[in-house]
Amino acid sequence: xxxxxxxxxxxxxxxxxxxxxxxxxxxxxxxxxxxxxxxxxxxxxxxxxxxxxxxxxxxxxxxxxxxxxxxxxxxxxxxxxxxxxxxxxxxxxxxxxxxxxxxxxxxxxxxxxxxxxxxxxxxxxxxxxxxxxxxxxxxxxxxxxxxxxxxxxxxxxxxxxxxxxxxxxxxxxxxxxxxxxxxxxxxxxxxxxxxxxxxxxxxxxxxxxxxxxxxxxxxxxxxxxxxxxxxxxxxxxxxxxxxxxxxxxxxxxxxxxxxxxxxxxxxxxxxxxxxxxxxxxxxxxxxxxxxxxxxxxxxxxxxxxxxxxxxxxxxxxxxxxxxxxxxxxxxxxxxxxxxxxxxxxxxxxxxxxxxxxxxxxxxxxxxxxxxxxxxxxxxxxxxxxxxxxxxxxxxxxxxxxxxxxxxxxxxxxxxxxxxxxxxxxxxxxxxxxxxxxxxxxxxxxxxxxxxxxxxxxxxxxxxxxxxxxxxxxxxxxxxxxxxxxxxxxxxxxxxxxx
Length: 498
Prior knowledge:
This protein is α+β, with helices and mostly antiparallel strands. Helix content is 47%, strand content 15%. It has helices spanning 2-23, 44-47, 66-83, 108-116, 144-148, 235-245, 280-295, 313-338, 340-362, 369-398, 403-439, 442-475, and strands spanning 41-42, 49-56, 89-93, 97-103, 121-125, 138-139, 202-203, 205-208, 212-219, 225-231, 251-255, 258-261, 272-275, 299-307, 366-367. It is elongated.
């Protein structure tokens, strides 16, 4: 038993030291730059920025479903990441709206242009060059700068019906291959060379997203999950010719010049086809991307506003002072009322604060005013768990129980109440988080997330940390007066551990 207590104490000490190290500023005790990417993530209301409400505005006859809206959200998120914005929040609201929050943005006008621009999906000829998901390329419809620049795509060269892009000619040393059209084909166009840009080769676009009529999850020939899609218009013939002449080679599916999939062509595809290769989640993600790219949902700005920081540096410092005063008051109450157990609970509360704040930086949690409120509330709940334990401990001592029995009984009898109340709070937090995500209310999600994490950590510190400290105190064999535990018992000068 004693060895187990020592191991538990060692674990608590190591965990606490690690949490304190992470909680310190990034430039304090940083080893080999490990902490450079660990910092406090501030939300829009703490550092200011831009908030944009986008609303889908599809042309008549087109509908926007949840999958399409989610795919559009993913596209906007990639664009925002390319802008270099830290801690962006992009989430859907309802069935036709997307909320974009960009803290610390320097050019609001450019940001609005980028997030409002319609997604551009392409199926391109890789010309025999291996491409990987996540790779940024330049196509015949433009390069990355055309997506993140002025918001106007590059001019699209006309694709001649029936033209069949084929394998590229061998690349000269240090150069890139020329993409050609098969001149021997009866329906071929004259040979057209595409000059490479300084960023790399230009890949020929075969199909645009607007030419994909539908995408869905289906079953392959061997029962595996695959992506099914349908083409419309003259794109059917063009894609059939391309796939017929390039069996065994790659094609790439590209959204905003970023490769999201690079399947191998297994056969000629006409009006309907399938894409094999991704796992189950990858299939679903690809369907979402294809649907959002095929619909090319126009987005209009329903509202746009620049948000100033609610808390400036002076206000943050004052809030910190107020928090320290409040925490000190709680600590003094615990020590004066519960004496020695109160002192141990104060130590456990400091460990709790370090662990919770370290988790906020590691996850990371974007702190907002509401999130800070949730954190402060969770501190109160952490103290509440100790109050339940110590109140029961005092009752056991008053009826003449030994200290060891009183400590164990205090934890055993208080645990069901602590467990049920905290689990109820965590369920409520989960509901609030879901509701905040659905409605796009980031103030609700921030509060729910910080409170959930705080309550979960408080259960660990109240039951494990405080209990370990008390057990070690009992095991030390020191004689302790009842007053050390807030119990007036004049009949006994001291309490034995057993």
